[in-house]
Amino acid sequence: MDAAKTKHLSGELEAYAHWFVAPDPAAGGQFLAVTLFAESDNTARVAREVTAVFLRGAGAGELVDDAQLVVSELVANVVNHTVPDRRLAQPGSCRRIDLTFKKYPKWVFLGVADEDSTPPLLPVGDAFPASLVGGLSEAVLPDSGRGLLIAQRLATSVWWSPEERGGKTVWCRFDLDRPGVCSA
Ligand SMILES: Nc1ncnc2c1ncn2[C@@H]1O[C@H](COP(=O)(O)OP(=O)(O)O)[C@@H](O)[C@H]1O
Ligand SMILES: [Mg+2]
User: Which InterPro entries does the UniProt record give (predicted)?
Assistant: First the structure.
């Protein structure tokens, strides 16, 4: 394996080693967890605002636009697609959405957790090559299934993990040292 590939792989492994631990504030890490409810009228707006407040406060303001779009899509998915697991569902109560933000010097992790253990349908491969998409009319592009695709395009990595109590978290990682992205 050449040196560039080895460096890239060790960067990925280092990133994933960080994903499940809370960042240490003394090492420049920041953490925020917020619970929202799917049935509130302003859930998506609050999620976008919290995202901006966290990122600006953590010195990662350059990610605000992309992360707000991604959080909107992930929260909308909880609102539109989730049915809580039977053992988590409370009759007549609202569905929980737990947002997690973690910032390290090199990465930001965004997690959107819900109470439904059904996995999201993460797109594998592209329906159309990126170079062609701009030239296609809206009519031939699919009406649904774009939210996770947008997340995959804007974040460095998108995946999901099951929660022990039931439900799952959809995770995104944004890299802070992307070439061409200037600090705000
Ligand atoms: N949090 C979620 N829980 C369960 N299923 C999900 C969730 N998010 C997405 N999905 C599934 O993945 C599919 C693709 O999601 P997405 O790309 O956002 O497209 P859309 O929301 O337009 O269908 C959804 O149609 C749904 O079946
Ligand atoms: Mg969606």
Answer: Anti-sigma-factor_SerPK (IPR050267), HATPase_C_sf (IPR036890), HATPase_dom (IPR003594)
Task: Name the more confident of 28 and 63.
Answer: 63
pTM over 0.70: yes
Per-residue pLDDT of 4-60, as tens digits, reads: 888 888 889 999 999 988 898 888 889 999 999 999 999 999 999 999 999 999 999
pLDDT at residue number 183: 46
- Give the DSSP per-residue string, 64-111: HHHHHHHHHHHHHHHHHH----TTT--TTPPPEEEEEEEE-SSEEEEE
For residue 13, tell me if it sits in a domain. no
Q: Is residue 95 part of a domain?
A: yes
Based on the structure, what is the number of domains in the chain?
A: 1
Q: Which domain holds residue 36?
A: 29-130+142-175
Q: How far is the CA of 3 from the centre of ligand 1 (A)?
A: 38
- For ligand 1, atom 18, name the residue with the nearest CA: 147
- Report the residue among 69, 117, 121, 144 best suited for mutation to probe ligand 1: largest number of ligand atoms under 8 A from its CB: 121
Residue 86: which CATH number? 3.30.565.10
Atom 22 in ligand 1: residue holding the nearest Cα? 144
Please give the DSSP secondary-structure letter assigned to residue 157. E
User: Helix, strand or coil for residue 158?
Assistant: strand
